[in-house]
Amino acid sequence: MNIVPKKLLSQLIKNGVITQEDADQYEVGSLQKNLSISDYLFQYSSAKKGDIIAAMGQVLGVPTVDLSNSPIDPQAVSFVSESIARKFLIIPYKYDSKDDALYLGTAEPFSTSITDFLAKKTGKRIILSLADLGDIKKTIDLSYSQGLSPEVRDALKEYEPEMQIKQESLTFATEAPIAKIVSTILEFAVKSRSSDIHIEPQDTQTKIRYRIDGILNEKLTLPRSIHDALISRIKILSEMKIDEKRIPQDGRFTFKVGVEEIDLRVSTLPTVHGEKVVMRLLKKTGGIPSLVDLGLRGPQLKDLEDAILKPYGIILVTGPTGSGKTTTLYSVLSRLNKPSVNISTLEDPVEYQIPGINQVQINPQAGLTFANGLRAFLRQDPNIILVG
Question: β-pairing, 358-361 with 343-347?
């Protein structure tokens, strides 16, 4: 697929990706190395791959997809076998049930042979999107060999939307395919060291996002038709009311992956497209790390150790979601936990249970708030109080 170098470079300048000076340098460089302008840009330019693909699509007048940043729809993958994907070097990445359209990433977006063959094979409307060949090969390996997609794809094949019934029953929500999908979502979260899982309903699909090292990553999309059953399954595990969809609910449950036991704190929220669920993952096994294990070193470690050994004062620990505030505080408490001191904590929720420490769970419905709890603590002869 040939693209006139000047057209592509002009488009990249227009998009604000490169400067005119960069364009002149890249054009000469591609001639010197005897590479097409697109290959040269991928290998030697400072431009992001996604920006180059987008500009190529604009020049050629075709849709594009950046597979390195796009989630793969396992339902789309289920329509095309691995052998066909490898033969034609294509990757199904999205299925639009409304238009019955299957979107494929390919390095040959004008190939009528691919379009005709797959239209007959799948019975779907085929839409080819330009993608990087290297990304296509990597995504084929990932989607057909490992990660979330194979397990979810198999479960989706077993799940039949026509089995849906309006009133959600316990039997329906715990059917094997849905249970398998929920388990796979949770297992992936544990393996990827996620702190949170977001299950978000959209108009035509459900997005699954994971917070890994503080950043949300979209890893999976599911058909919108299974969203209600998915949420019902999670609600049953969390002991929530499955027929209450108008107000937010909170719950928790425990999930085991091998020898690792994970406590999940679950929150639901009604949105215009349905109920969104966020699950916070809390490790129950493995113990509480020491301050050194948390990465504290040098003057910072000494300052904190000096501060926690003082008989009076206050220590504030702040930071964004998933940064380790609670874990740091628990590490400090573990260091100070001795028979000679009375430690009381006021938490919402109690994330880890530490033997020898008086941990109190906030319960506003029963009148136990942070203010009331602190007032009560002052009559409990405390040495150390944690408010979290």
Answer: parallel
4/375 Cα distance (integer angstroms): 75
Q: Which residues pair with 150 in a beta bridge?
A: none
Half-sphere exposure of 30 (CA within 13 A, CB side): 21
323: DSSP letter? S
Per-residue pLDDT tens, the chain, 388 aa: give them.
Answer: 667 888 999 999 999 999 999 999 999 998 998 888 888 898 888 888 889 999 999 999 999 998 887 888 888 888 888 889 999 999 999 988 888 999 999 999 998 889 999 999 889 999 999 998 888 998 888 777 545 566 676 677 666 554 444 444 444 444 578 888 898 889 888 887 888 999 999 988 899 998 877 788 887 888 888 899 999 999 999 999 998 899 999 998 988 887 778 889 999 999 999 999 999 988 765 667 888 888 888 888 899 999 998 989 999 999 887 678 888 998 999 889 999 999 999 988 777 778 889 999 888 888 899 999 999 999 999 999 999 8
The interaxial angle of helices 325-336 and 298-308, nearest 10 deg, is 60
CA-closest candidate to residue 384, choices 299, 307, 293: 307
Q: Which among 327, 316, 315, 318 has a CA at the least distance from the CA of 291? A: 327
User: Within a 10 A sphere around the Cβ of 22, how many other Cβ atoms?
Assistant: 17
Provide CB contacts within 8 A for 231, sequence distance 6+: 199, 268, 274, 275, 277
Beta bridge partners of 102: 95, 126
Q: 249 pairs with which residues across the strands?
A: 268
Strand order, beta sheet including 215-223: 215-223, 205-212, 194-201, 274-283, 260-271, 249-257
Helix (H, G, I), strand (E, B) or coil at 279: strand
Would you state the torsion angle of the CA atoms of residues 195, 211, 173, 72, taken in this order, to the nearest 10 degrees? -140
Contacts of 134 by beta carbon, 8 Å cutoff, 6+ apart: none
Strand partners, 262: 255, 283
Does pTM surpass 0.90? no
